[in-house]
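Q: Convert this sequence to C-alpha cells.
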Amino acid sequence: MRVTIDTSKFLVNPNSKIDLSQWRTEVPAFYQSKESYLTLLDESRQKIGALQEVLYAHDRYAVLLIFQGMDSAGKGSAIKHVMSGINPQGCQVLSFLAPGPEALEHDFLWRANKSLPERGRIGIFDRSYYEEVVVVRIQPQLLEQQRIPAEFVDPKHIWQERFSDIVNLENYLHRNGTRIIKFFLHLSKKEQRKRLLARIDEPSKNWKITGADIEARRKWDDYQHAYGECIGTTSTEIAPWFIVPADDKRNTRLIVSSILLETLQSLKMDFPQSSDVRRAELARMQTYLKSDK
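A:
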C-alpha cells in the first residue's frame, strides 16, 4: 500500500510570519480505515528501522527530533507509535519537565546540551528548550527563578536574544553532523477540550491532567501567539519546523513518520566498507569456523 504525503505543506519557511489560526489542525485522512492506517504506519516504521541501522553503523550523523504543542496535542503518542520499530540501543527519549534545582543553576540550554544524541543515534525531545521562549515568556515568574543578572533581562530584547541563541546552537549542531527536525503538533481548542475531558472521565488517565493544563488553556491565545512567533523566527533550512495537524492522531503519526523517513533518506550514509586487511581477517575467521566441528 502506497500513499504519498506532500510534507512540504506542513513546512515552515525561514523568517515566516506565523499566525497559527491560519494553519489547519485537521486535513483529509491519508488512510481509509484503521487497518489501512496500521499498514501504512508499519511500512514507514520498517523503512525507518532499516535506515536507523545504517545511521548507527555509519556513525557520522545524529538525528534530533523535537516535539512541541499544547497539552494533549499527542506528543507522547506520536513518539510511541512512530518510533516503536526503532532499536532501543540507537534511540533515546527525554521529556523536558519543569527545571529542577540543578538545572536552575545553569543556562537555559544546559539541559539540552547534556542530553543531545550521540553520533549514530536518534534523540527525541518531548518538549524542549523551546519551552524557554514560550512557557517562560508567558509565565514571568519562571524567568525570575533562573536568577539571571538584571541587565540581561530586558523584556524588549530577551526573547529575540534567546531565539538567536537557539538558532546559533542548531547551526552549530548541524555543522557537527546532527540533523534537527522540529514538530509543532497543532491542536484545535475544541479538540483539546474533548481530550482533557476524556482524561477526567477515564480513571486510568486522571494522572495525565493537572491544574497547570487548565491554566495554560485559559491563556490559549497567548500561547498561540508565542508559539507562532517562536516557530516563524527559528525555522531554518537546516533545522526546519513542521506544523502538523493534530486533531486526528492517526494522520499526525503518518505525517511525522513521513517527514522522519524523508530526512533519513536524505542523509549520505551507508554501511562501512571493509578494508583489504579487514577482509583478510574475516576470511581467516571464516576458515576457522568452517573447520571447527
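Residues 42 and 85 are 8 Å apart (CA to CA).
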